[in-house]
Amino acid sequence: MKNKKRINYSKKLRYEKERRKQKTLAEERISGLFNLADEMIEKDKNLAKRYVQLARKISMKYKSRIPSEYKRKFCKKCGSYLKQGKNVTVRLHNSKLIYHCQECGAISRFAYKSKRKKAEEKEETTETDQEEKPII
Ligand SMILES: [Zn+2]
Fold it and tell me: Could you tell me the pTM of the whole model?
């Protein structure tokens, strides 16, 4: 019985390790594809779009997130790679960033916060976290 348990445990561990490896690999591929799309947008819009599609497919397959710095760089509706001054207009309205895709006309909104404000909030949350933790 004991042996069986140990085997199961190591199997699970190996599976977890493999999954983590795949996830980091997927993340690397995603950022690589976005970098390629960034270069390609000047020459071939459709190819850049294809790179974005591939990156999104990879993120879905391996359930890994698209890094936040790339999340705003494509249109969620048509999947085009968006580059400022090329095919997207960005406006600030009511402390929200409004991205207007010029390929399909879709509008996406992102909450806008300055880096300083974010840091302040982070500090506040960590302070409250410490208070809520029971002292053992
Ligand atoms: Zn679009």
Answer: 0.72
For the chain, domain boundaries: 2-132
CATH of domain 2-132: 1.20.5.420
Measure 34 CA to ligand 1 centroid, in angstroms: 16
* Separation of CA 81 and ligand 1 centre (Å): 8
* 50 CA distance to ligand 1 middle (Å): 13
Q: Please report, in tens digits, the pLDDT of each residue of the chain (136 residues total).
A: 556 666 677 888 989 999 899 999 999 999 999 999 999 999 999 999 999 999 999 999 998 889 888 999 999 999 999 999 899 999 998 889 999 999 999 999 988 776 666 677 666 655 445 555 555 5
Amino acid 51 reads Y
Expressed in angstroms and rounded, the spacing between residue 94 Cα and the centre of ligand 1 is 22
**Which bin fits 123, alpha (ψ -120 to 50), beta or left (φ > 0)?**
alpha
